Amino acid sequence: MVQYISRTLWNLCQKGFRQFLSQKGGLFESESSTYTYLLADTNTKEAVIIDPVLETIDRDLKLIKELGLNLTVAVNTHCHADHITSTGLMKQRVAGLKSAISKFSGATADIHLTEGDNIPFGRHSLTVKETPGHTDGCITLVTGDQTMAFTGDALLIRGCGRTDFQQGCAEKLYHSVHEKIFTLPDECLIYPAHDYLGQTVSTVGEERKFNPRLTKSMEEFVELMNNLNLPKPKKIDISVPANLVCGLHHV
């Protein structure tokens, strides 16, 4: 059995999943509107954590201890610009923990991931799909039965990550989403790294049909993304250097 953990219990016995959700829907960090995800095999207690945030390390480690989990891998979906990862500090506090990130991120890690790699936890695993466009090092993590996809900043709920910094490329992102995420089953649940409106989960089918950016033609999408004129992320000058070294720069 797999647990997807955040806080309140939702039991999906028919699929062998157990899911814990907070009122916000996940392990949420409010300043950067970042969702952290924790998944575990309920039999072996082996667990992985996705996109942990520095400011919430104590909360996350407390939950892991309460649930009696053995955290084996901390994986980042890309080198974040809006927050500092807690991965490096987690490695100092959790014996045997390994860090993981895309080979193309340019960041330090114990495991450098590429297309098709698997991150095992107990009898289960996450499969890596390379989904560049927001950055060159963006990945999407898909459960073995393709019922859940953790899309990082590539695909958000009714949106997508920006493409105007850190090797961003709108054309790459369009192809990534359409070829790597929208080809998953319609009912596959989408869990993004961020949401700014309180939304927690979508599906591949919903986003393929209703996402206002990614239902456009590629030419329309590129034109839109190239003219968003968004402000520079507040923490980019601190976060990126820190995240390139597992979150330990100036911490």
UniProtKB/TrEMBL annotation:
Record-level GO cellular component terms: mitochondrion
Sorted UniProt keywords: Acetylation, Dioxygenase, Iron, Metal-binding, Mitochondrion, Oxidoreductase, Transit peptide
A GO molecular-function descriptor: metal ion binding
Reaction it catalyzes: S-sulfanylglutathione + O2 + H2O = sulfite + glutathione + 2 H(+)
Name this polypeptide is given: Persulfide dioxygenase ETHE1, mitochondrial
A Pfam family matched in the record: Lactamase_B
GO biological process: glutathione metabolic process; hydrogen sulfide metabolic process
Subunit structure: Homodimer. Monomer. Interacts with TST. May interact with RELA.
Cofactor: Fe(2+)
Organism field: Oreochromis aureus (Israeli tilapia)
Stated family: Belongs to the metallo-beta-lactamase superfamily. Glyoxalase II family.
